[in-house]
Amino acid sequence: MSGAKPFYVTTPIYYVNDKPHIGHAYTTLACDVLARFKRLDGFDVKFLTGTDEHGQKVEKSAEVAGLSPQALADANSANFRELTKVLGCSNDDFIRTTEPRHIAACQALWNELLKRGEIYLGHYEGWYSVRDEAFYNEDELKAGPDGQKLAPTGAPVEWVKEPSYFFRLSAWGERLLAYYDREPDSIGPQSRRNEVMSFVKGGLNDLSVSRTSFSWGIPVPGDESHVMYVWLDALTNYITAVGYPDTTGEYAKYWPADLHMVGKDIVRFHSVYWPAFLMAAGLEPPKRVFAHGWWTNEGQKISKSIGNVIDPLSLIERYGLDQVRYFLLREVPFGNDGDFSHRAMINRMNSELANDYGNLAQRVLSMVGKNCGAQVPQHGEFTAEDRELLDAAAALIGKQRDAMDRQLFHEALEALWVVIRAANGYVDRQAPWALKKTNPERMATVLWVLAETVRHLAMLTQPFMPTSSARLLDQLAVPEDQRDFRHIGSHFALKPGTPLPTPQGVFPRLVEEGAV
Ligand code: MSP
């Protein structure tokens, strides 16, 4: 892929104290769709995901489970790795923070920060939440139902008093604001950008970046009674994976990352601490951080204690992988919070996939199969209506690029469905089944226009629904080496006379038990 533009996209790395759930699947899927889109669009993509394995939270969970932290991490990291496979993810690497390459990168970054006078030894006294792995100021806390102090997220906090190394975050406020100004796309959506900027404008305290009261972490070089703060460790994974501290090779090609995709709860770590650490070490901050919203389950907050955690594997078993991929990215405007409900899942699966898209493809392919000798039909002159549909299909790629660059997956899908609905309307109006007797040449033109529209659609749904789209492209006899976006234009339009295989439905309807 020499000469191709690099594109580096990352998911957050997942804590191994927990089993994978729908929230984790969501972030990973969004990144996979983007990675696939960019590959098809000719970029040299690196897509990274992995697991966050150190810290007090993991240490405590291991204790409760009666396991060593390493054994817990091994077991749960394997679950997350398995999830990426089940989701059909095309990640190029899977990083674990317990790997030697990562420990080396963290220690190198630490030494660089120390050398530059950005880290100093002091004493921390204040509030800490193990669940959030975050420090809080007194004025950020709220009162719980029994008057106990809670983090703004609702997590319990404890008073911590111990020797600690600090990062001089307080000195980075102005330079962070200058970075946000210089890179208007550095934080999305806009509401999160405003939040981060006002947090930074409010003034920053130095950040405690080591702990001495537990040991499950990366040792501070030269002072092994300390382990690194788990967020300094975790964030560094993004540069470990491109070879840091070696800044030639992959680092030179892929850094700074094009996009760190995160949930809205961890924006501050990615848009304040991380760029400050990097700039302080003389490295480039990321180009963009995008924060998506949170899912609830049938209207309720998802939590282990309520017992309503949604297991992505059982969803996929019940509805199918492409259906779940489609639903998660279609149901909620990306960036907003959303609610998962089985009713909504079934509705979208049946109405948009089976009825709109599936029926369009099936009707067109079976008419071509029956009436055109199972070959791509020969078209004649195009009417204004033919051109209108073909032009709308051809304009899709530009719309997809635009929406993808802003992570507006729901808009990208809506643009595709506008054309799907237009094509269904066109079939009804042109009524090719009636033309069969009266004007077979016109019938062939109409079917060609439709088949060519389906080719565009199937090319562009590949990032979202790779398996179903491949099956549609197989049925249109589009060669495998002509499915990237260089081949989308009219020069590569379907060739009349190309033999086509027997059509088969691609998007099944879900018939509910008990339904008539
Ligand atoms: N380990 C840190 C990230 C370190 S990145 C250098 C972490 N891990 S996590 O496993 O707790 O969460 C990972 C991601 O899952 C976060 O982006 C979070 O927003 C997302 N989600 C967790 N629950 C979610 C929902 N209910 N809905 C959508 N996403 C949610 O944070």
Defining traits:
516 residues, alpha/beta, Isoleucyl-tRNA Synthetase, Domain 1, seven-stranded parallel beta sheet, four-stranded antiparallel beta sheet, elongated, binds 5'-O-[(L-methionyl)-sulphamoyl]adenosine
Description:
The protein has helices spanning 22-40, 56-65, 69-86, 100-115, 173-182, 190-201, 230-235, 237-240, 249-254, 267-280, 312-319, 321-331, 342-371, 384-394, 396-405, 409-430, 432-438, 440-461, 466-475; strands at 6-10, 14-15, 44-52, 93-96, 119-129, 134-136, 142-143, 149-150, 158-167, 187-188, 207-208, 210-211, 227-228, 259-263, 289-292, 295-297, 300-301, 338-340. The chain has 19 helices and 18 strands. The relative contact order is 0.11. The chain has a domain at 342-492: Isoleucyl-tRNA Synthetase, Domain 1 (Orthogonal Bundle), CATH 1.10.730.10. With 516 residues, the protein is of the alpha/beta class. α10 links the parallel β14 and β15 (289-292). Strands 1, 2, 3, 4, 10, 14 and 15 form a 7-stranded parallel sheet that branches. Residues 12-15, 23-24, 26-27, 52, 234-235, 262-263, 265-266, 294-295, 302 line the site of 5'-O-[(L-methionyl)-sulphamoyl]adenosine.
